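Q: I'm a student working through a structural biology exercise. My instructor gave each of us a protein and asked us to get a predicted structure, then write a short paragraph describing it. Mine is Carboxypeptidase. I'm not confident about reading structure output yet, so if you can add a plain explanation after the tokens, that would really help. Here is the sequence I was given:
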Amino acid sequence: MFYFFFESRNSKKDPVVIWLTGGPGCSSELALFYENGPFTIADNMSLVWNEYGWDKASNLLYVDQPIGTGFSYSSDQRDIRHNEDEVSNDLYDFLQAFFAEHPEFAKNDFFITGESYAGHYIPAFAARVHRGNKAKEGIHINLKGFAIGNGLTDPAIQYKAYTDYALDMGVIKKSDHDRINKLVPVCEMAIKLCGTDGTISCMASYFVCNNIFNGIMALAGDTNVRDMN
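A: Happy to help. First, here is the predicted structure for Carboxypeptidase. I'll explain a few features afterward.
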């Protein structure tokens, strides 16, 4: 799998932090260049140091995953992953290979972080690391914790909370809230039909449920959805 690795600006002994962007299918370069990486991209396409980069306090690892995301590609369809078990196994294998290649970081504290659909990846990956450590598989990974930002973990719960939150934050009016909320039962049914089989019904549930979010955003104007507090 394709990755970027940046040593800490402070010390090689700082924790190793892996970042996973969600999607599914969003490259981790999104976070690297627009969120918490060591650089941002200037208007003239040059790189500028990010004064808020996490590399000020950690050794940062960005991975394009699962296979088929960003620069991580394969011509073999058998490499395409369809569930969290497969994704977490690939990430665990990647981590084993990374620490074998960079043994000087293997004993550092290790944290798993990410956002959005990584709310699915991160717990599964953390559990896989824990199982590997417990079974004494390969290199011991000094997992200390994980963090999920704006995580998508349970759509059936989260989508129906969007309108309540938007109303509480003054983004929409009560009449808008009640109107958009009529989509919630349809969304819940679509999610149940989707289940875990990943068929066309899941794509349908995505579009149905996103009508709730899109309905709110159509009224929100220039509101930054990641900065409502």
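A: Here are two points you could use in your paragraph. The beta strands are 3-6, 16-20, 39-41, 47-49, 59-63, 110-115, 143-149. The chain has two domains: 3-149, 155-218. It's a good idea to check both against the output above yourself.
Q: Great, thank you!
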